Amino acid sequence: MSEDDGTIQLLIEDDANRTALAELLEERYEVRTDDTELTGDVVLVDDRSLPTYRDQVQSLEAASSFSPVVLVRREGTRLDLDSNSDHRLVDEVVTAPVREAILHRRLRNLLVRRRQFERLEEQNEQLERFASVVSHDLRNPLQVAQGRLDLLESSVADSEREHVEHAQESLDRMDSLISDVLALAREGNELENPTEVQLSTVVANAWSVVASQDADLVAVDEGAMVVADTDRLSSVFENLFRNAVEHGRSDVTIEVGTTADGFYVADDGPGIPPEKRDDVLERGYSSAEGTGLGLDIVTSVVDAHGWELSVGESDTGGARFDVSGVELVRASRA
């Protein structure tokens, strides 16, 4: 879609003014002059016609979509656009006589904003569909597994009880992760309880969930604390750890440390080629080995905190994920 694609709807009572504006716009846009229903991407009204069409223009405020309004106002005309009834009634004001370059620039900017709004709506719909899949297609079999484990628990010998406990911990963590993903998908960037948390504690807890038999974890900084939502921060490390274990060697070594304004997770695996480093952070990206859900969750959590995530190469040639913009707090020493 080019910058000149779009529909401009004119609400101009004066025939001569309406015709003049239509001729000015028709080379770049589709122009509509029907005033029975507001269907244009942008609505253009002049100060003389505004009282007539006020109710129609105000109805756009209640619409779920973004329908910008441009007011063409004669120089010196005073309009009460700050009253409660006219709150956000007009998005742009163009002074008459209209200068073509200015009008086209204002319309172009509004059309860009409208397209951005439409893309955001599409993303929200995709998130809602994703949340529905997580809620039903993942939670239902999880509940079945939980029920079967409950039935088996009484028949498991004491010497094998440890396996039941690990299975129960994993099922509980899966249920918690599903809840977090649903919250991210349906609540966006809202963080309920960001607090100062010990980074090493979060890392250790995440590693206990993900750790494989041969992989090793090296924690470089034991004293750092970060201001974050604990559960969501834990999901960042869990997914980055899982990504390293699943895409690296079975005996991969993972290092976690802090930087001047954040933290990193690095490994000594095969790494990510430079031409793919931006791609892996794109929504919905997946490689042949996985679904891409893990890094999607990491990106969502990082965004929710207002941080930034970047991908690079570790000192050993593996992958390195840096999270910056983090509020770090150094624990006081006794």
Automatic annotation (TrEMBL):
It is an enzyme of class 2 (transferase). This is histidine kinase. InterPro entries: HATPase_C_sf, HATPase_dom, His_kinase_dom, HisK_dim/P_dom, HisK_dim/P_sf, Sensor_HK_Regulatory, Sig_transdc_His_kin-like_C. Residues 133-324 form the Histidine kinase domain. It comes from Natrialba swarupiae. It catalyses: ATP + protein L-histidine = ADP + protein N-phospho-L-histidine. It comes from the Archaea. The lineage of its organism: Archaea, Methanobacteriati, Methanobacteriota, Stenosarchaea group, Halobacteria. Keywords: Coiled coil, Kinase, Phosphoprotein, Transferase, Two-component regulatory system. It holds the Pfam family HATPase_c. The keyword Kinase applies. Its EC number is 2.7.13.3. GO terms for molecular function: phosphorelay sensor kinase activity. The keyword Coiled coil applies. Residues 142-169 form a coiled coil.
